[in-house]
Amino acid sequence: MRFFTEKLAATLLAAFAMAASSAQAAEAEGDPDLGRNLFQVWSCGACHILADAGGAGQIGPSLDGNPNISFDYLVSRISNGGGAMPPFAGQLTNEEIASLAAYILNVAE
Fold this sequence. Notes:
Layout: H1 2-27, H2 32-41, E1 49-50, E2 55-56, H3 71-80, H4 94-107
């Protein structure tokens, strides 16, 4: 019985993780193509690692392999800055910020 309970718990945990990942991807509304362009234009790769964009910067956190990023986190950090990152609210529209976050979330390895 214990094996069954542990197996069921593991299966449910995996299902919840997949559902959360799917919900997060659905929540990431924005134009990833626009986001890719913005990542290049604003030289985000000078500070951040993101393989898809050729970003190899060492100043900001790596966007690849970062389990802490979510759509909401990215939107907040891009908008408000933090640490060495400047805020981009006022320089980018809400649509551009959402697109940049969606792009990062979709391609981060």
